[in-house]
Design a protein that fits this description.
Layout: H1 3-16, H2 19-26, H3 30-44, E1 49-52, E2 55-58, H4 60-88, E3 91-95, H5 101-113, E4 118-122, H6 125-133, E5 139-144, E6 151-159, E7 187-189, H7 196-209, E8 216-218, H8 222-230, E9 235-239, H9 240-246, E10 249-251, E11 258-266, H10 271-287
Parallel strand pairs: 3-4, 3-5, 7-8, 7-9
Antiparallel strand pairs: 1-2, 5-11, 6-9, 6-10, 6-11
Helix pairs in contact: 1-2, 1-3, 1-4, 2-3, 5-10
């Protein structure tokens, strides 16, 4: 006997007062619903319904059994729902805050096509690494030096004007004697690049060419840094993709080559390998990284 199917038929018939309607709600023929309920009655040795021309009326035994039957059916429905969710197996992934909603949506859609269901959590570099260590996320796109990177994103300087030289040298921001009283142009480092292999190299370059400390500054947010750039001759350290999104004009840095590096860090299992193997190109597009052939990915081509 299909015990769950029998109790489901019993509940549906009792709620509708009709074997015909109850069977339809159970999505089985009326004869099947009748046999299942009859099997229950035989098992318990008591009738559940008084069958008459007026419909299916619960007996006292049927009324006594109805609450437990409803709990069983509801529990089964809940288990079906949880089973569907478990099959989706959502993977919480910490991502850089630089990823746009559109790019994350495209990454999510492509992941689903590859049997991976993602739950994004945007966070700065240090926090992403900590989230993996504490297992608050299953995986993260963590910031690493270029030599360890799976995805690489070249950085340059972007400004509000298109009058920039083809290559921007940091030393050109050094003010001359005649301009000591004027405001000096600054380079803004956004939170995503507040990591040693980018920030410290930029600071060393600043010091080597004679800029003042305040002329290369880490901003609290990308929005604040962009606002400073849009209203002045300041420059933003960013990728080509970001410059395009922000309406800025991007140029390479003359003195040094700066690169964001990313890899997948996972808390357990083979999550890192699975993400990297199935979603390499989608993640590259999201980050504005180079393709495996060395070219720029998608819109980040120059």
């Amino acid at each position: 006997m299909d015990v769950l199917g029998a109790w489901r038929a019993f509940v549906n018939v009792s709620e509708r007062g009709s074997f015909t309607e109850g069977a339809a709600a159970t999505r089985v023929p009326q004869s099947v619903a009748s046999r299942r309920i009859a099997a229950l009655e035989k098992h318990f040795g008591e009738r559940l319904f008084d069958r008459s021309s007026r419909g299916a009326m619960l007996t006292q035994f049927g009324r006594d059994m109805l609450p437990s039957a409803k709990r069983l059916v509801h529990l089964a429905d809940d288990m079906e729902h949880e089973a569907e969710r478990a099959k989706l197996n959502p993977l919480r992934l910490a991502v850089p805050g630089i990823c746009t909603v559109r790019d994350l949506a495209r990454l999510d859609a492509e992941a689903r096509q590859n049997g991976i269901y993602l739950d994004f959590h945007a966070a700065p570099p240090a926090e992403r690494a900590e989230l993996v260590r504490s297992r608050e996320v299953r995986a993260a796109l963590t910031a690493v030096p270029p030599s360890d990177a799976v995805w690489s994103v070249r950085l340059g300087l972007a400004g509000a004007t298109d009058q920039l030289a083809e290559t921007v040298y940091v030393e050109t921001l050094r003010a001359g004697r005649a301009a000591l009283s004027s405001r000096r142009s600054r380079i803004w480092i956004q939170p995503e690049d507040d990591v040693p292999h980018i920030r410290d190299r930029m600071f060393r370059t600043r010091d080597a060419v004679g800029l003042q400390p305040a002329q290369v500054t880490v901003s609290t947010t990308l929005t604040a840094a962009t606002a400073e750039v849009l209203g002045s001759t300041d420059l933003l350290l960013c990728s080509v993709k970001q410059a395009e999104e922000l309406g800025l004009h991007w140029r390479p840095v003359g003195e040094i080559r700066l690169v964001r590096g990313f890899e997948v860090s996972a808390a357990v299992g083979d999550d890192a390998e699975r993400i990297q193997a199935r979603l390499w190109h989608a993640i590259a597009r999201c980050l504005g990284a180079r393709d495996r052939d060395g070219g720029a990915s998608s819109r980040s081509r120059t």
